[in-house]
Amino acid sequence: xxxxxxxxxxxxxxxxxxxxxxxxxxxxxxHADFLLEMIIKPTFDxxxxxxxxxxxxxxxxxxxxxxxxxNHLLDAELVIADMSERNPNAFYEMGIRHMTNxxxxxxxxxxxxxxxxxxxYRAIDFSIRNPASIFAAQRRLKEAVAATQNSDxxxxxxxxxxxxxxxxxxxxxxxMDLMKEELEELKRTMRTLVPHLAPPVxxxxxxxxxxxxxxxxxxxxxxxxxxPTQIEFKVIDGLGRRVALNTALEIWAGMGGIAQPRxxxxxxxxxxxxxxxxxxxxxxxxxxxxxxxxxxxxxxLRST
Length: 304
Known about the structure:
Rossmann fold, 2 domains, 10 helices, globular
């Protein structure tokens, strides 16, 4: 009896990792190894030791989709799918997993153009070239995996959505049909507005020589804004931090357009990107001043 109990404790759940693998020494293999060794395994080793992480190439030849791999896609408690490089096999494997109504976490390398049919669904981005993104990806992966372990977790993917739409049509009441028509009308309206949206405006607050250019670009954007403008102040000058911050404030306050009626349609989200070595008191001082200016809807911080 004790031996049987011990065996039960040792049984782990499976996290099956699929995506582009490539041959030894290729850029694709370096990418796959980076994701596995730097992001996935550290996250599971620290937070989900009850899982055994298995990558697809350890059970079959790279490029092959055999019965053993399909069984993992059908039965594993969790699948992580890397959508980088838009690998055909990876998307085929994702499709199989989507049919199971079991948890899957989507990931992709920064710069990957995600196909339209999976783009609306949450995915975790990462960058091989940016070490800071490793920790961000680990944190988001931890949150995503933890969510899948909740008893009330609901799987959402293109297949479950299609099934939900079908069930809606079968079971809908007149009131639900009216709600669907209103939502469809809202979607059509949004599609009409999208081509007219103003792009975000970015400014690096390091160099005061950019003042005139920043003012001109912001003024042009605000003239045609139909959505909240995102203004990003990148404060990265270690020697002139306080000067750069104050310069940014002067530009914002002095643009004039913020206080004029023709710009009242726009409220602005400010993204403050700062070097992690900048003292917190300087950041707080800047935020306090910025929050008092007109037209600011919210302020968000990003550390580099």
